[in-house]
């Protein structure tokens, strides 16, 4: 009987650890995605005013680094809890990865425009990034 109680305690501890780890991955990806939104918000006034985009390169680099890791931030079983992730992510993970790859390509375009100091090119790339690429992932994969 005593061995059974120890086995149950170990099992419960393992389940609690998995739930905690899942909560961590959800919290980490939410914080990262919020940071990405902050980068986009910081770029908007520069794009709108056709200002100098060069100072935004570091923000774009951070976005590229984050989105390179995005698919790994959605492990199986992390679709419940404090998340707006829709089941479609795991049901069609290749499509999710495709959307992420497309966004990475667009961020490279945005970075090139920022690095060159091309204000008009940056504004055009920025205008496409939000609705077409960010929205291309939010619409099918994120609850409102």
List the helices and strands and how they pair.
Elements: H1 2-49, H2 57-68, H3 88-91, H4 93-116, H5 119-141
Helix pairs in contact: 1-5, 2-4, 4-5
Protein name: Cytochrome c556
InterPro entries: Cyt_c/b562, Cyt_c_II, Cyt_c_prime
Keywords: Electron transport, Heme, Iron, Metal-binding, Signal, Transport
Protein model, in words:
With 144 residues, this protein is mainly α. Helices cover 77% and strands 0% of the residues. Helix 1 (2-49) packs antiparallel against helix 5 (119-141). The protein is elongated and about 45 Å long.
- Give the H and E element order: HHHHH
Chain-averaged pLDDT: 88
What's the main sheet like? none
Name of the CATH first level: Mainly Alpha
Please indicate the percent range of residues in DSSP E strands (runs of 2 or more). Answer: under 5%
Return the CATH topology.
Four Helix Bundle (Hemerythrin (Met), subunit A)
Query: Which term fits the overall shape?
Result: elongated
How far is the N terminus from the C terminus?
Answer: 49 Å
- Give the number of domains: 1
**Helical residues, percent:** over 70%
Question: Per CATH, which architecture?
Answer: Up-down Bundle
């Amino acid at each position: 009987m005593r061995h059974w109680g120890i086995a149950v305690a170990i099992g419960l501890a393992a389940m609690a650890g998995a739930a905690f780890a899942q909560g961590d991955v959800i919290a980490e990806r939410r914080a990262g995605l919020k940071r990405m939104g902050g980068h986009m918000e910081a770029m908007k006034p520069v794009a709108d005013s056709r200002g100098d985009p060069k100072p935004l390169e570091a923000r774009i680099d951070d976005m590229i680094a984050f989105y390179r890791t995005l698919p790994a931030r959605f492990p199986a079983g992390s679709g419940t809890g404090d998340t707006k992730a829709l089941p479609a992510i795991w049901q069609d993970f290749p499509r999710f990865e495709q959307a992420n790859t497309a966004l990475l390509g667009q961020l490279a375009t945005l970075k090139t425009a920022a690095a060159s100091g091309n204000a008009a090119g940056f504004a055009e790339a920025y205008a496409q990034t939000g609705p077409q690429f960010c929205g291309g992932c939010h619409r099918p994969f994120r609850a409102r």
